[in-house]
Amino acid sequence: MKSNLIIKFETILRRNRQRLTAPKRQIFDYLLTTNQPVSAVSIAKNNPNINSSTIYRILNRFVTLKIIKIVPQGFKIRYELGDGFNQHHHHLTCENCGRAVAFDSPELEHLIKKISLNLNMKPTKHHIELYGLCSACQSQ
Ligand SMILES: [Zn+2]
Ligand SMILES: [Zn+2]
Ligand SMILES: [Zn+2]
After folding, report:
1. Ligand 1 centre and the CA of 79: distance in Å?
2. What pLDDT does 44 receive?
3. Residues 56-72, mean pLDDT to the nearest whole number
4. Residue 34 CA, ligand 3 centroid: distance in Å
5. Does 31 lie in the same domain as 70?
6. Are 70 and 10 contained in the same domain?
């Protein structure tokens, strides 16, 4: 049985006249299983049957189609499913081990909206980078 997310994914590809190839499906399925933003390198490592130039091409296409989004962490770029496939959320990343803890905060969303509206801007998107030390790294 196909999950709603797979159906949604296929619909986006179809609407944008993109072929549903086996590598596209595999990368999407892989991103469904990761619960952390992942780098292109780690996507390539976990999907060794697809060559890495194909992986980069698919990732760029998926970003354009908003199937996935870029999660910038300093100079590094990671990817995760876009807000249409995942509830909108942010991450607090451990500076030491790199583990990203996801959270969502209605207060934060409200504040961002308020700041934009106060400046006569219609809010469209945002990303926030937050860093800390996780409990395991604090006790090192
Ligand atoms: Zn840590
Ligand atoms: Zn996330
Ligand atoms: Zn937000």
Report:
1. 20
2. 97
3. 95
4. 20
5. yes
6. yes
Question: Quick one: 54 and 106 in the same domain?
Answer: no
CATH of the domain at 116: 3.30.1490.190
Using N-to-C axis directions, what is the helix angle for 22-33 and 52-64, rounded to 10°? 70
Please give the tally of structural domains in the chain.
Answer: 2
Supply the range of the domain harboring residue 27.
4-81
Task: Answer yes or no: do 26 and 9 share one domain.
Answer: yes
Note the ligand closest to the C-alpha atom of 91.
2
How far apart are the CA of 72 and the centre of ligand 1, in A?
18
Quick one: pLDDT at residue 2?
A: 67
Last-in-domain residue among 81, 99, 128: 81
**pLDDT score of 77:** 92
Categorize the per-residue pLDDT at 72 as very low, low, confident or very high, splitting at 50, 70 and 90.
Answer: confident
Interval between CA 103 and ligand 2 midpoint (Å): 8
| Beta carbons within 8 Å of 69's beta carbon, 6+ residues apart | 63, 79, 80, 81, 82, 83
Bridge partners of 79? 38, 70
User: Is residue 61 predicted with pLDDT exceeding 80?
Assistant: yes
pLDDT in tens, 49-59: 999 999 999 99
* Ligand nearest to C-alpha 87: 2
Using alpha carbons only, give the angle 63, 41, 35 rounded to the nearest 5 degrees.
65
